[in-house]
Protein 1
Amino acid sequence: MNQEFVKLEGLGNDFVLIDQRHTDKQLTDSQIKKIGERRFGIGCDQILILKAPTNDDADFSYHVFNSDGSKSEHCGNGLRCAGAYFKKFHNVKNSVIAQIGMSTYEVKFLENGLFAVDIDTPIFDPEKVGLGKIDPIDRYTTIIKDKPIEYGAVSLGNPHAVINVEEPVREVASIIGPQFQEKGIFRDGVNVGFFRIVDRSTIELSVWERGVGYTLACGTGACAAVAVGQKWGLLDHKVEVIQEGGVLDIIGDKIGGKLKMIGPANFVFDGSIEV
C-alpha cells in the first residue's frame, strides 16, 4: 500500500502525520512500526494519525503511536504540529480543534510560527496515574542501583514521573531514564522527566519517553515538570522550559490548574512510502 505523509517537528521532536479523515484505510501495527523506523522507514519519534471526529466541535480525531508501534494517549508537541499541518496545507487561519478520546483541545495559531495549546488539568491521583491504589503523597521513592530516587507522579493524559536533579539533565536522563522504566512501577509504563532548576521561572529538562527513548523535546513532559515543580513549591506560575530542541513556555493559572503550552512547530517535508 502506498501511503502519503507529512513530516513535521516541534523542537526537534519529530512526527510523521498521516491524514485519514476521508478514507477507511487502516494501517496495521507492523506498517506503523515500519513508518517510524529511521533506517528502513521514514523515521520519527511518533506517528500522528488523523481521523474524522465524532465530536461536532472538532476538526479531527487525533491518534498517537510511538516509533516502536505502541499507542500513546497524548502528545503536546504533536498537537502543535497538527496545527502547523492545517495552517500550511488547508489554509486554516486562526485555530483547529483536536478530539482525543472524549476530550477536545484547541490549537491556536500565534505569530512567528508559534502555537498555543491548553493542556489537561494535572492529575495527581496515584491510581489514575498508574501507580495503583496507594495513598497520594507529593514525593514517591524508588531505589535504582542502591540509590534512592525521589519523584513526583502526574498524568497530563499520559503518565509522567518527574525527578528534580542538579546534574546535567541529558546525561541523567540517558542513564536513569531506562532504568526507571525497567522497574515497571507504573501500570502502563511511564515517561520519565528530569528537570534542573535555573531559577523559579526557568528549568532545563530532558525526558526519556515511553516507547521512544530519549527525545529532543517533550510537550506533555514539560507540562508535567512544571506541574510537579509548582506542587513542590519550587516554580512560579509561568516557566520557561529549556530542552535540547528548544524552549517551551508553560503557563499555569494556579497550582494544580490547567496549563497552557506555547512553542513552535514546523513543516519538514512530505511524500509517500510503500508499506
Protein 2
Amino acid sequence: MSVLEAIIMGILQGLTEFLPVSSSGHLAIGSALFGVEAEENMMFTVAVHVATVLSTLVVLGGEIWKILKGTCSRPAGGPGLAGLNGDQRYVLNILVSMIPIGIVGVFFKDHVKAVFGSGLTVVGCCLLVTAALLAFSYYAQPRQKEQISLRDAFIIGLSQALAVLPGLSRSGTTIATGLMLGNKKTAMAQFSFLMVIPPILGEALLDLKDAAENGISEAFNGLSASALAVGFIAAFVAGIIACKWMISIVSKGKLIYFAWYCLAAGILTLIFGR
C-alpha cells in the first residue's frame, strides 16, 4: 500500500465510520477499485479504527467526561435500577447495547470474516438494506421518548451486531433503529457514536494479540511506517469532520439524503461489482 492509497483509505474510513453509508462497504469498494486489500492488512485496519475512536473522544469528550463524573456520583436513591441517576443509566444502556456485538465477536467471528471475502454482491445488497432503513426512519413518526430505555438499548445493540455485514452501515442502522423506536434525534446520534467505542477497542486489542502471536511482519504485510502514519492521521481528521457533520445532520432530520446515496451506491455496486 502506497502513501497516497493509505491517505485515500484513511479518509474513506474516517468519513464512512460516522456517515450512514457503511465504512466496511466503502473500504471493500475502495479495495476493489485500487487493488488494495486494506482489510487483509491487520495493522492498517487497527490503526484507522483506533483513529476514529480518538476522533469521537475529541468531538464528544465533554459529554463523555460529564457522564463519567455522573456515574461516579451517588445514585439517585430508590430500589434497584430505579435508584440509578441519569448518567449511571446511560452507562448501563451502553453496556447492554454491547451484549449482541460481543456474542457475534466471540462466537461468529470466523463466519463474519468469510462474508467479507465473498465479494461485492453482499456489499451491494446490504447498501440497499441501509437505504431502506434510513428511509423508514425518515418517514416514521413514532411517539417521542424522553430517554433511551434498557429495552431500546438492547434492540439498538442487535442492529449494531447485524451491521458487521459489509455494506450495512453501523451508524445508519443504529440511529435509524433508535429513531423508529421513538428516541430523540440528537440523543441517538450521541448514543450511536459512544456505544461503538468499547467494541472497536476490544476488537483492536484482539487483533494486536493475534499480531503478537502470528508475528509483526505478517501483521504489517509490507505496509510501511509512513503509510500507516498518514492513514491514521487521515482517518482521525476525517473522523472529526464526519462526526460533527453527522450530529448536525441527524438533529436536522436529513438522513433521507443518505438513503438515496446508499440506494444509488448499492445498485451501482451490484451492476459493476460482479
Protein 3
Amino acid sequence: MLHETTISFIGSGVMAEAMIKGVLDRRLTSSDRILAAGPRADRGYALTERYGIHSTTSNLDAARVSEIVVLSVKPQVLPKVLRELNGHLEPGVLVLSIAAGTRIRAIGRGLGGHQAIVRAMPNTPAQLGKGITVWTSTPQVSDVQRAQADQVLGALGDTIWMEDEAYLDMATALSGTGPAYVFLFIEALIDAGVHLGFSRRVAEQLVLQTMEGSLAVARTSARHPATLRNMVTSPGGTTAEALYQLEKGGLRTIISKAVYGAYQKSKLLGEMSEK
C-alpha cells in the first residue's frame, strides 16, 4: 500500500522518529521514500545516519515531492508551517497532522483550502510502538489514502478511526493525556513505598512489576475490572482498608474531574485554532 509512496515528515522530533522507525521496521516502504524536514541540519543528519532516509531543512522542498505530508511539529509551530506550505500542495496530497489541539478546518484553511486531511491524536507510548492513536479524516480522503494513513499511524501502535472529529477531544483527555495520569499514580505509589521504609530502588521494582502484571491480567481476562478488584479484596482485610481510604479521598471523582477538565481544555484549544 505504501511501497511506492513518498512520505515527508514536517518536523523531525521524537514522534516523527517513532513513526519513521515503525514504518521501516514494518517494511511498509523503503528508506529512500522517506524525507524528514526540520530547522536543525544536525538532527536531519542523525536521522539519515540512523535510518538511511533523506533529510532537509526546507519544509517546502520535502512537501513538494511527497504523496503524504505528515505534520509532526508542535502546535505552536504549526501556523507558521501551514503558511509556508499554503498553495504549494497538490490537491491529491494526503496531509496527516498529529499536532494536538488544531482542528481539521484550521489546517485546511491554513493550507489555502486543502481538503484531503487526516487528524490524529497519538500518545507518548507510541514512541515505543506501544501507543494508541485515535484519528479521523475528511470525506475527501480516499479509501486508499485512509488505508495508508492507518498503516502510517499503525507504526505507533493500535489505531481507532472515528467518523466525528469531536471524539479527538475526548481521546486527548483520556488516552492522549492518560500516560501522565498513570505516571503520577506510579510516582505516588513509589513514594508511599519509600515512606513505609523500602529503598526507592526496591519500591520502584515492586510498583512497576505490579503495574505491568496487573495490566497483563486486565488485558487477558474477560472479567470486568471491578470483578478483578474484588478477587483480590478480602472482607475486612488490608486491600479493603486501602480501597476504603482511596474512595473516602474521592479518587474516582478526582479522576473524572481531571479527565473532563482536560477534555474542556482540548475543546478550547480547538476552538482557538479556528479563530
